[in-house]
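Researcher: Structure prediction, please.
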Amino acid sequence: MTTSANSEKQPNLLRSIAAWGVHLFTASGSVFGLLGILAIFEKDWKMMIVWMIVAMLVDGFDGMLARWADVKTYANGVDGALLDNILDYLNYVMVPALFLIKADVLPESVRLFAASSILLTSAYQFTQTDAKTDDHHFKGFPSYWNVAALYMLLMNLSPWINFGFLMLFNVLVFVPIKYIYPSRNSYLRTLTLALTYAYGAIGIWGLLQYPNQPQWVVWASFVYVAYYIILSIIPKKKNNAA
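Model: Predicted structure follows.
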């Protein structure tokens, strides 16, 4: 009986360690957000890009790891969803907001207004009770401000055009379009995952070459952006998988 009890405790201990390790992995996103902020203050855009990428990779893998480790059972003292939202607000909103103020991608006269606007609209977006719907969608523009900031840095568009896009995205936060959650989407799942991974891999490869990134990478990435938007807005049947 003692041996059996010990054997049961050991797997549970290991699973608890794994589950708490996943929470620590998620929390590491705060460190990468801080490093991104320090890079912005130094106007070291290359290192800002590096830390943004690392933070996005942590965010991209922590949900899968959390489900694998069953954190809700073995590390239920921490609210993983709340932790994830806090770090998403830091890395997807606060860091790009500071970038908008420090970089030369917006007219100087509206930088503080633009940064403040995304802080406020994202505060609303993050705290909606149905911000993430039961069928795994984001309701309203899902605060991809870090992605928008990177496009502004790479494309060298007119600062007023960048400002116009920012204002459009702010409005879209309040428009109840259901944007797909790529890793949990069930509609055209195989194609969506393949395009998402390709977008991520090619995008990271291109970004790491900044400021000498191939421009074709930037323009080719809009194939995925267009696919993402179209898949999000077209009517979908329930339980329709690829």
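Model: The chain has one domain: 2-233.
Researcher: Thanks, that helps.
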